[in-house]
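User: Can you predict the 3D structure for this chain?
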Amino acid sequence: MIGLPRGCKDVVLLSRKVRCIMLDYSTNRSPLLSLRDDEDSAEGGINPLGFYSIADQLASDFLAPGVRERQRRIRFVTISAVSAWICADFGEDEIAADGVSEPWQVLEWYVVEGLVRGANDDLDERGLPGRDKAARARKDGLPLSAKIYLKTPSVFGFHGVYRSLARSLDIVNSTGILAETGIELLRAWEKDQGLAGFYSGNGENGGRYRNLLRDAVRDGLREGAVSRPSRWQGWVEIIQHLRHSQVGRYEKRVLRSALRGKENAPDPKFRGHLLDYLISEPGRRAWRASKGSERSFHEAFHRDCKEKGLRDLLGSILAFESFSRLLQDAFEDALSEMARCTKGASPGEMAKRRPVDLAARKTWDLARDVADRLGAFGLSGDFQRVFGTLSEARDPDDWIVALLEHHTRIQREKPPHGKAPWCERLDNGRWVVRPLYRPEAGDGNQRDYVNRYRTGPLWSFAKDLGLV
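Assistant: Here is the predicted structure, written as structure tokens:
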């Protein structure tokens, strides 16, 4: 992300092809475009119509507990276990000289810098949070520190990205202490790496490596930054033992079992069922044929699934996404009509667009079906609260106004202080799209889901674990 220019008032995420535009209102200069965000970053999505909360609960609480869209390398769960054991040597309230960085954060600096140092190409760095910051710091000859690293490392660093999965798999507990499965994973990792004694302290190689990392963290805490030079042998050993793209033989066994294992979800088998289907011959064929379309994959899974609870969940997701797609397409088409009309678009003009008319006619019946299905997962109330005003029967002219008013409410309720809506109603009743939000051309994939449900991360895990 480039820095905000002086006078910038808005940071805007546009359409499904997420881009960031920054407009300098003080000079009316042309907007500056940042690099396009990775499309895998669904969990940071724009959410202009309020779909995300329900979709996230369906995915994270039921279908694939602990899995997040930003996750790509299962090896970071193992690295989290290593980190928890190293950081157990430090006090609960121990903080670096910078006044903000905890021991786990300091260890993360070392690991990320070491992995960047050992990267052979861009593919080798795939799925490494913080890699750009580390690469830039190394190029500038600066040690990684809180000022140079990610602004919110507890969310966007690898500890933050994989924390939910590490807890769901019983690798660490809610306070970051190594848990039962985490101990099993750590022992498997040390066996693969020839580091016997890393956990128990009763082995020369493992004990030496633990001391090497612990001492680096201790010095990093004292200095508030990475405190090792380029010639430090630890960089080589971080690459050798903690490379995020390489999972050991015994380590794979523990991670495979954990991904299929116990959950705090209503049905502990849902994530395991999803993974098992994904790596089966029909599942592999369905995912590859889908070319990344989760709707296509879920339709095949729903047909093949024998587990009633899971079938109900998949049916709920398919219905909710049909509802979401109707609204999303109508919203984008309304914005297009506003952009086409130089003086703004009237409700009648927007209502003539086919997606708007289609949504106005189908939303009422579909909303009742979605609410009924979501009731089995305790989400019917949330759905009615967010979308209740759109599930009433009305003519297209009135319905599109209700949709745009719904969008305005969603934007203004966003934390911490609300966001500006993408469009505004003029005194004469016409609607105009704000310049920053003029829609791009459609991508021709309007049948696909609006939200994402973790198939991509699980497929990536399966590849790293040798399951596909």
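The CA atoms of residues 298 and 314 lie 7 Å apart. The radius of gyration is 25 Å.
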